[in-house]
Amino acid sequence: MKITDEMIDYIGILARLRLEEDEKESAKVEMEKIINYMDKLNEVDTTGIEAMSHAFPVKNVFRKDEVRPSVPRDEIIANAPRKKDGCFQVPKTVE
Amino acid sequence: MDEMKWTALEAGRRIRAHEIGVEELTKACLDEIKKTNDTYHSFITICEQEAMAQAKKVQKGIDDGTLTSPLAGVPMAVKDNMCTKGIETTCASKILTGFRPFYSSTAVHRLEEAGAVILGKLNMDEFAMGSTSETSFYGPVVNPWGEQRSPGGSSGGSAAAVAAQQVFYTLGSDTGGSIRQPASFCGVTGLKPTYGAVSRYGLIAYASSLDQIGPVGKNVEDIAEVLHIISGHDPKDSTSVDAPAIKTVLTGDIQGMRIGIPKEYFGEGLQKDVKDRVLEAAKKLEELGAVVEEFSMPEIDYAIPTYYIIACAEASSNLSRFDGVKYGYAPTEYKDLTDLYYKARSQGFGMEVKRRIMIGAFVLSSGYYDAYYKKALQVKAVIKQSFDRAFEKFDCILSPTAPTTALRLGESLSDPLKMYLGDIYTVSVNLAGLPSLVVPCGFDCEGLPVGLQLTGKAFSESTLLNAGYAYQQATQYHKITPFAAGKEA
Fold first, then answer.
1. For labelling alongside B311, which of A83, A92, B35, B151 has CA 20 to 30 A away?
2. pLDDT classification of B486: cutoffs 50, 70, 90
3. Measured between beta carbons, which residues in chain A are less than 8 angstroms from residue B341?
């Protein structure tokens, strides 16, 4: 498969990553090599084989609905680059 | 210094016998780290104050009989992708610089409860993405076996710190070989436990269905003891298996143990010295009573593409949490919220991390999901079945850990696909969720260590550790350090 400029731009939008022009060129070349290598899986006949997300069966894990103290708010926001009045601060998102 | 040569259990014994104090030993380790870290760059953060405070507390606990673990008071260090309360946890990434978690990961917490003294946080590939520990934002780790050599990755700091005798043992994490390959390259012992055996709570996720925390140490006895402390059910990790801690009684008796050698693992691309050493190890195990037999496992050809599709897909999802809002790096200027996301991520992540996020976004994108992601999950099932079949006949599978010995620094960065191909013998183990042990089994013609990989069925850690123990009882490779072998510090 050929990885085009449009594809790289589209993937950039999905991944919220903006590449510099030179990064974009090398990303195109490397991704094409890697994706083409991944196409090797087409050699495997997987008709009727169920997709396996976990190697062992996973099940829902429930616990009792008990009131417990949560982590103090100031500890949680202590690492935020910007905070205000005990909240994470972000740019205005609605006009 | 002489005490740095002790194994972890020996250090613990001497502490309990009052031959050395916990603070004295902690200080000796810290001095050693400060003296040698410029050479190896194995540590990102050294937490001297916290370590000395913990040492004092632990000594008191040992003296009053509340701390009875054989590893109480023994200094160790943790890969920098595990949260440590109040201590900077960076994942070797710019985007998490300055992040101080408000909680500790379960594995770390259990070690601290048992009296471990944590000296610092170990260098690694950024977000554990890499096989050489060169993608770290903080610069590459250097292999104690040669200043031009990579220690492997991603837990390069975890393996190098043990090999360089800076600490007695470490924790690493293994998503596709990240404990085992560095253990092989640095001539130390490492274990990737069964998926779900050790809680992942507080481990910063790379690929959640594959990630597993495990110990790195000087020998099998030490890491068996660490496993005993860190394993066992944790309600905070919903994939943690409801089972008790894994306690292994090492007998060294492997009479009748059935060991399979997959012949496809010894084909093209395998360095001759590595092949010879691993087959010699198989012979040794046979002499010790094991029944060794060759078999076929052709599915190995598909392990790498399957692994990278699944790992990158999960990474692209897991790493979406890094947005410049909640923690870590944020740009100073941005137009709006979307621009903040773009700038924080584009400036905060390194190139290999960006590449894997983008591959992940691609294989999950509309139009390609079935052809790549779903296909990979199906092939994963095929690989799992082939292991299941092998374990009907064998107790464990013996193989090389990596196709080569330690790579030269710089030689992988320019060709990511080539670096991925080096993971051929390790990634399928994670896809199948299995435990896998690496022990040193000799050296190549340049004097670089070779590691033997033993893989078992789910929750057969004790079987693997016992095989490794038998091997180490009969060989000396694990006792040879880079210094004894004539390498300069």
1. B151
2. low
3. 16
